[in-house]
Every structure is written in structure tokens, then in C-alpha cells.
User: What shape does this take?
Amino acid sequence: MTEPDLLAAYDALLLDLDGTVYRGGEAVPGAVEAIKASRDRGAGIRYVTNNASRKPGSVAEHLNELGFQASVEEVSTSSQAAAAVLAERLDRGALVLIIGTPALTDEVEALGLTSTRVFSPEVAAVVQGHSPDTGWRDLAEAALAIRNGALWVACNVDATLPTERGLLPGNGSMVTALRAATDVEPVVAGKPARPLMDQAIRSAGARRPLVVGDRLDTDILGATNAELDALLVLTGVATPGQVLEAPAELRPRFLAADLSGLLVPVSEVEIAKQPDWDVQVDDDTLTVTGSGDPLALLRGLCAAWWQAGGGPVTVRAGDDASMAALAELNIG
Assistant: This one.
């Protein structure tokens, strides 16, 4: 009997964008084909992004330009989630100070709130999303409002933003600056908090969704917080070494090189003991022997080390094949 592939166990995919589906203006290799195959088999598709700088329609348009089939309804953004959080907590018409792009302003105003970019005592809340144009003056206005008691909602706290040029400062870097200036913690709407994930699940009408992403601290932690399974892909931020040493709440159930992992047998992507690799645990050291796929080795290392408790670890090769595989993973 043929083993079912990973997709067969789930009715919807909650897909991260930056670093998972695309990097800036380029589709991640294999992503278009994997998502099309998933859609053709009836899986619900939701593009779930912490990037609050663009409207859902613009995100869908960009996806279509890259070869993905995407409708506006399939896009869930952290700006939508942040606006919903504000609407739940504020009176209609309340004044909200915006740090971010016009796309964030549109989402806030669409829910009956009033926007401004200048502090006044009437400001009831500050909402902060990514914009490449955010500067000191924007943060200064927000700091005044927050210190005056305004609710502070951050669309996300991603420290970096994957692009085709490499990792650039993300909204979380700006949030850190504002946190330092106010000694206040924001309410977070995007991943890893639940509002954005819950919004995407409701939109898809999903009962068994699978979270797919490239970041441990947002995608995988978001899945943990929402009590969902997750597939980590190594096309963006997370590195093999970080995965191996991840604490319990940042550990995915599945691991693949890219989105093609959705269409292979579960045993080929699930983090578990591997038949081609032997991993011995001795205190804080792992010794490896065997041969085969380096990613299979990583899954085996994670399974052995996480069962032992996890944390910082030294990995040693017991033969030439394992030495080569560890070098490819940049571990040891």
C-alpha cells in the first residue's frame, strides 16, 4: 500500500509568504508547482503574511505576477488582524495613530476608526506595521501617544524581512526601538500571536489546517500557540543549527527543503528516527554515522536531541559520509 503524502492529512494550507512562497520579487523554486498541485487536490489555500505594508489586493496581484493563482479572499495580512484587534477594543470613530503604509491606514479606517499620524491627547491607540519609510519622527509621535496611555498594537514583531538581497530590518526592529523608548509591551496581532492565524482558519473554513513557514519565532511558534501542526521549510530565515537547538515551543512536526515537501510521503518529512542514519547521544554531544540525504540526517538529529531534552549541542561525524552531510547542513 502506498504511503500517503503530507498534504493528504490536511484540508488547508496556511502559507507564510516572505521566505516561504517568494523572496521579494522572485518565487521560491518549486513553490508555484507545489501550491498548484495542492489546490488541484482541493486543499484550501490561505496566504498568511505578517507583512502589513501592502493591501490584500496588492499581495494577490504580486502572487499572480509570480505565477501563483491567488484571489484577494485567500490573503490574510497582519494589518487586517491588527485593525480587527483595534475595532474590538475601541469605540467606533476612535482616533488611531498610524505607523506604516497607506495599506494599514485603509484597514483601520475600513472598520470605522479614524486615523492620524500626529500625536494629540485624543489618540486612543497606536498601530505599527512595516514601512520602509518609517523614521524617527514617526516613532517620536507614537512614543508620545503610548506614554500618554494609548493602546499599542503591533502588526508583527519580525526582526528581519527576507528579500532577494538578503535579510533586511523588519517591523520588529522598529517595535524594539519604540519598546525601548516607552517601557511598554505592544499587543501583537500577527504571528506568533493568534489573531492572524485564527482569522486565516476562519476564512478557509478549515478543520485540519497545516501551517507552513520558514521562521521558528513566528510561523512555528504561531502554529504552537494555535495548536496546529507545522511544516518548516529551509528557504528563508531558519537554519539547520537553529532548528536542532530550538526550544520545545519552536519545534515543527515536519521539515523539508521547500514546499515540494507537501507532496512526498509523510515519513520523508516527519521529524523522527531515520533508517539511514545512526545518532548516538552522550550528554551534550551527538555522534552520527551512516549515509544518505543530509535533510534526513537533520530530522534524525532533531528527533534524537529533542527526545533527550534539547538545547545547545555538539555534533560529531563518525565517518566521511556523515562529515560531508554535516558540512552541507553547516552543523558541527
